[in-house]
Amino acid sequence: MRSALIVFASLIAMPALAQEPVGCDKFKWPIDRERALLAEANPVSIGADVSGGSVRLSLSPISDIKVPMEPSREPKPNTYAGFVRYASPPRAGMYRTFRTRMD
């Protein structure tokens, strides 16, 4: 009887131990539009004036660049940063910022 309880308890606990799917194709909602925006992003340099559209910005160590506004607290070691300047949005609406980390 005790071994049956152990087997039953382990079967109940198994779904809780299952790992969530990973990767861009495993989302529960479609992200095709967002992936297309990231694929067509234009590379820009730090501090560039941007008129609109998707951009790709390579970050640099924060000690190597002059940010327009000093951080409110001391950056941690090995902190990277970057910025661009956008003109006013062409029209009212919802705008998204995507952040990806590439090691």
Question: Mind explaining what this structure looks like?
Answer:
This protein has 2 helices and 6 strands. It has one domain. With 103 residues, the protein is of the alpha/beta class. The strands form 3 sheets. A two-stranded parallel sheet has the order 1-3. Helices cover 23% and strands 14% of the residues. It is extended, with a radius of gyration of 22 Å.
Considering the chains and any ligands shown, give keywords for the structure.
alpha/beta; disordered N terminus; extended; two-stranded parallel sheet; two-stranded parallel ribbon; 2 helices; 103 residues; 23% helix
What amount of the residues lies in strands?
Answer: 5-15%
Low-confidence stretches: 3-11
Order of the strands making up the biggest sheet? 1-3
* Beta strands, count: 6
Shape: extended
Helix content: 10-25%
The profile of the biggest β sheet is: 2 strands, parallel
Mean pLDDT: 76
H/E element string?
A: HHEEEEEE
Q: Would you tell me the structural class of the helices and strands?
A: alpha/beta
Intertermini distance: 52 Å
Number of helices: 2
| Count of the domains | 1
Q: What would you report as the Rg, rounded to the nearest angstrom?
A: 22 Å
Topology:
Blueprint: H1 2-17, H2 32-39, E1 42-44, E2 49-50, E3 55-57, E4 60-61, E5 80-81, E6 85-86
Parallel strand pairs: 1-3, 2-6
Antiparallel strand pairs: 4-5
How would you concisely characterize the structure shown here?
Helices cover 23% and strands 14% of the residues. The chain is of the alpha/beta class and 103 residues long.
